[in-house]
Amino acid sequence: MIYLNGKFMPIEEACVPVLDRGFIFGDGVYEVIPAYSRKLFRLESHLHRLQHSLDSIRLTNPYNNSQWHDLLEKIVVGNDNEDQYIYLHVTRGVAKRDHAFPPNSTPTVFIMSNPLLAPSQDLLTNGCSAITAIDNRWIRCDIKSISLLPNVLLRQMAIDANASETILIRDGFLTEGSASSIFIVRDNVLLAPPKSHLMLPGITYDVVLELATANHIPYRIREIHEEELQSADEIMLTSSTREIMAVTRLNDNPVGTGRPGKLCQRLQQLYHHYKTTTMRGDTPLS
Ligand code: PDD
After folding, report:
1. 238 touches ligand 1 (CB under 6 Å)
2. Please, are residues 14 and 4 in contact by the beta-carbon 8 Å criterion?
3. 21-54 pLDDT tens trace
4. Residue 203 alpha carbon, nearest atom of ligand 1
5. Is the Cβ atom of 32 under 6 angstroms away from ligand 1?
6. Do 108 and 90 meet the contact criterion of CB atoms below 8 Å apart?
7. Per CATH, which fold does 121-279 belong to?
């Protein structure tokens, strides 16, 4: 069951007019929210980031938080899986094609659910591979925009190289992955690039740093040079759909020992415990 512009329906019945500005211009924003045991995880943080994205593209939020809660909960209840990830999408609506904002269009709102699969045993045991590439996206990567063509092309580079993520470098420094946040470990210290307009403020990124604080894991938030990435003891990627994953090969070279590192495994355990005990997890740990 999906939601489209005021109605719940099977996805096969959902249609959007071709003049929707999402279709014509990629003029819209989105969120991806995990739900564990049918409880939305960090919902308030996702709605806060949605508001930031909408404000940044000058689109009025079509719903208040309590309306979002109702809609999202109906979708979670109306779909089969206990663990789901909810995709929500707001565009500037349908209008005659013109780059400038239409004077009075109604936003299009679409919400769907997909099963959220736990990371496979193979991924937990062996980690995944990544490549690096120049971050050639625009400079408002803090907006969760549906215009994802650069991210699509960058992710495909990884797939073509038999890897699962492309880690992006701008002016010699790590920004993030094509669809994930990136952390590294050097000398037992977790390093995270600082949030800026050059990366998406990841919700899982925040959870990882809160878990580190609460469990006395040393960390620093600072610029990370490409060379520090290449010679890191551990690399991990995080996102709402992939949680925390060890990157054990980078550009075909082993990362550290070539096996998931101790800090990554510890954070995976802490994340698992946190998501299964707090479920909704709206309350930050620190
Ligand atoms: N993407 N950076 C980018 C570019 C992303 O697309 C994502 C997530 C993240 C991690 O953010 P979070 O921890 O809030 O999921 C970082 C989602 C999952 C997607 O587009 O499917």
Report:
1. yes
2. yes
3. 999 999 999 999 999 999 999 999 999 999 999 9
4. 14
5. yes
6. yes
7. D-amino Acid Aminotransferase; Chain A, domain 2 (3.20.10)
